[in-house]
Amino acid sequence: QVQLVESGGGLVQAGGSLRLSCAASGRNYSLYTMGWFRQAPGKEREFLTQISESGSGIGYADSVKGRFTISRDNAKNTVYLQMNSLKPEDTAVYYCAAREIGRPKYDYWGQGTQVTVSS
Fold first, then answer.
1. Contact 95, 108 (CB under 8 A)
2. For residue 115, what are the contacts with CB-CB under 8 A and spacing of at least 6?
3. pLDDT exceeds cutoff 90 at 112
4. Residue 2 burial by CB count (10 A; 0-12/13-18/19+): exposed, middle or buried?
5. Cβ-Cβ contacts under 8 Å for 106 (sequence gap 6 or more)
6. What is the DSSP string of 68-88?
7. In whole angstroms, what is the distance from residue 30 CA to residue 54 CA?
8. What H or E segment, with its residue span, contains residue 33?
9. Cα torsion for 7, 70, 73, 19, to the nearest 10°?
10. Rounded distance, CA 31 to CA 25, Å?
11. Is residue 23 within 8 Å of 77, Cβ to Cβ?
12. Do the beta carbons of residue 54 and residue 113 sit within 8 Å?
């Protein structure tokens, strides 16, 4: 199992930047695909980006492509989400998640961190 704890959320003005971190504990962190999701009030959870176990495979949702960057440091058991050019519509609770190799779904989730972008 993997336990995930996000940090780095907060209040930022539109056009600003934030860097989220997700620290993982447990066994075999480097064998998990890691993803970031968000959920705004009244909306469904939205996939943002994911990074493969080695870091070589990365994908982004169109809504964040070119503005957000995912990375991971397997030595530190941490995945990051660098968010630039933030917009008020990026306001949401941001979650990291882990998906074990060969499994179709993300099985492990953090508690979330709030990001608020003011206009």
1. no
2. 9, 10, 12, 18, 20, 38, 83, 86, 90, 91, 92, 93, 94
3. yes
4. buried
5. 35, 37, 97, 98, 99
6. EEEEEETTTTEEEEEE-S--G
7. 7
8. strand 32-39
9. -30
10. 13
11. yes
12. no
d(CA 39, CA 46): 6
What's the chain's average pLDDT?
95
| Lowest-confidence region among 7-16, 49-58, 88-97 | 49-58
Chain centroid offset of residue 114 CA: 12
Residue 95: pLDDT band (50, 70, 90) is very high
Q: Is 8 helix (H, G, I), strand (E, B) or coil?
A: coil
